[in-house]
Design a protein that fits this description.
The protein is of the alpha/beta class. The protein has eight helices and six strands, in the order ααβββααααββαβα.
Length: about 210
């Protein structure tokens, strides 16, 4: 089955299941968009090096903090490649979320609006943005997928890669967990074949 279609369907179905069918709040959507497209908001990719597929936030009414407590990465495989390891390590998604919270907290609402962060600017009034002390990343995989592991193809090629591999080996099934959703690989194959068949089918010509 088409890999792109499978990946798209897995992410879509996973988001629906994780959110219990609820749409992202405007704040979650804007924060996620910044993490996925930092350049649009004048932020360097090196400051937000890796982007998550989904985040969840909570409001602490006692302290007035807006806390990003979890990030999700949708994968149709569990043998983590080097790109995944960089993403899941402390220098990846976690680093980007920490940087974003610090940026929001030190920037005025007017400046945030100028950057395009209108929802964040509105919510900043009286609130501090923070990454949770028990922040975790969940790797979301199909129900019949095996447990997480480091792929044999995960070869370090950049500075910090060896440290990242050691970190992820230590964090697997602790701070980085595989969350198995209800759909299976077989279901993804079936749906992606139907999707690509519909996409590739010729448009019928209407006779005059």
């Amino acid at each position: 089955a088409d890999k792109v279609a499978r990946g798209y369907l897995h992410q879509l179905l996973s988001e629906i299941e994780i959110s219990n069918g609820k749409e992202k709040s405007p704040l979650e959507q804007e924060l996620l968009d910044v993490l996925q497209n930092p350049g649009t908001y004048g932020i360097k990719r090196q400051d937000i090096p890796r982007n998550p597929d989904l985040i969840t936030i909570e409001f602490d009414k006692l302290t007035g903090k807006i806390i990003i407590n979890r990030a999700y990465e949708a994968k149709t495989y569990t043998g983590l490649k080097m790109r995944d390891i960089r993403q899941l390590s402390s220098g990846g998604t976690t680093k980007g979320i920490k940087y974003l919270c610090e940026l929001i907290n030190r920037t005025s609402p007017n400046e945030l609006k100028r950057k395009g962060l209108s929802v964040v600017a509105e919510m900043k009034n009286g609130h501090i943005f923070e990454i949770a002390s028990n922040f975790e990343i969940q790797v979301v995989v199909p129900f019949d997928q095996p447990d997480l592991s480091i792929s044999d193809n995960a070869v370090p090629t950049e500075p910090g890669d060896e440290e990242a591999i050691a970190e992820i080996k230590d964090k697997i099934n602790n701070k980085i967990k595989a969350r198995k959703v209800t759909h299976t690989n077989e279901k993804l194959d079936q749906l992606s074949k139907e999707l690509t068949a519909d996409y590739n089918s010729p448009t019928p010509v209407r006779r005059r």
